[in-house]
Specification:
There is one protein chain. The chain is α/β, with parallel strands linked by helices and about 280 residues long. It has two domains: about 5-75, Winged helix-like DNA-binding domain superfamily/Winged helix DNA-binding domain (Arc Repressor Mutant, subunit A, Orthogonal Bundle), CATH 1.10.10; about 95-270, Glucose-6-phosphate isomerase like protein, domain 1 (Rossmann fold, 3-Layer(aba) Sandwich), CATH 3.40.50. Helices cover about 50% and strands about 10% of the residues. The protein contains twelve helices and five strands. It has a five-stranded parallel sheet, with helices on both faces. It comes from Cnuibacter physcomitrellae.
């Protein structure tokens, strides 16, 4: 359990001074990785002995173990605090990190990797896009962008269904794009293996925690999601979606133009878009 869960479970059994230190910890989870026991005691207004006693009650040997625990939580994607965007300095730090994530993603791409994926997305008989949890908005956005210029693009699984129904008819003529960012749903590896066993080309887009799956897919693209805030940032992945979809449509110039014209005509006929 995380330190926050441990505090919640035992809060009622803590002394008033221990509760005071626990309250400070809960309000500053993002800073635990840098605070010493002495600093926590000073900032929470209790004695160092109280902080040490609290740590032992929570199952930690000392402040160093707590700091390591906090670092492990954040690196696994658990929201444990961070800067609160608003101040100019905080927004500047946010911008720097976002740009760095995008640069790291682009620098990690071997020559021709984007072109390879774009060609697959343009030429495959069907494209099935799977994104669970935080990957779902990315999957939906990629589907919407690709669907502007080609048909037979699906997000899976459909509500109430499982992946098996969606991949039963896929083979080497099709393509699957799989978003697999950290804190993946249980069974991710089995799902990937099941798709690969049918000979379907797989594009895996994820952060570094999914590297162990890279050998089991056709193409692997790593997108850093580091953030100065409590939550991971998917800006680099969203940017990648734009590049891949645009590149795929450029490979189907005539087909894309015809489809876009048809869709635009239907927009007008059905009155689906705000004319302004």
């Amino acid at each position: 359990m995380s330190i926050g869960q441990r505090i919640d479970r035992s809060y009622g059994d803590l002394s008033p001074q221990e509760q005071r230190a626990a309250d400070f910890i809960l309000d500053h989870l993002g800073d635990l990785a840098i605070y010493s026991g002495t600093e926590l005691a000073q900032r929470s207004g209790v004695s160092k002995a109280t902080v040490s006693r609290l740590f032992r009650r929570l199952g930690f040997e000392n402040a160093q173990e707590v700091r390591e625990h906090a670092r492990a939580l954040r690196s696994s994607g658990v929201p444990v605090g961070g800067v609160v965007p608003g101040a100019s300095a905080d927004l500047a730090a946010h911008l720097v990190r976002e740009v760095e994530n995008l640069r790291r993603m682009l620098d990690s791409l071997p020559a021709g990797r984007l072109e390879q994926v774009a060609t697959l997305l343009a030429r495959a008989r069907t494209v099935t896009i799977i994104g669970q949890r935080n990957g779902f908005p990315l999957a939906l956005h990629l589907r919407e962008q690709l669907a502007q210029g080609r048909g037979h693009v699906h997000v899976a699984p459909l509500p109430g269904q499982t992946v098996s129904e969606e991949i039963a008819e896929l083979d080497a003529r099709d393509a699957v794009v799989l978003f697999g960012f950290r804190r993946r749903a249980a069974g991710f590896g089995r799902m990937l293996d099941g798709i690969a066993s049918r000979g379907v080309p797989i594009v895996l887009i994820a952060d570094a925690s999914a590297r162990r799956y890279a050998d089991g897919v056709t193409t692997w693209i790593e997108c850093p999601i580091d953030s100065v805030s409590a939550l991971d940032s998917y800006a680099s992945a969203m940017s990648l979606v734009n590049v891949l979809a645009s590149s795929a449509l450029a490979l189907r110039t005539r087909e894309s133009r015809t489809r876009i014209a048809t869709i635009t005509t239907l927009y007008d006929r059905l009155g689906e878009l705000d004319p302004s």
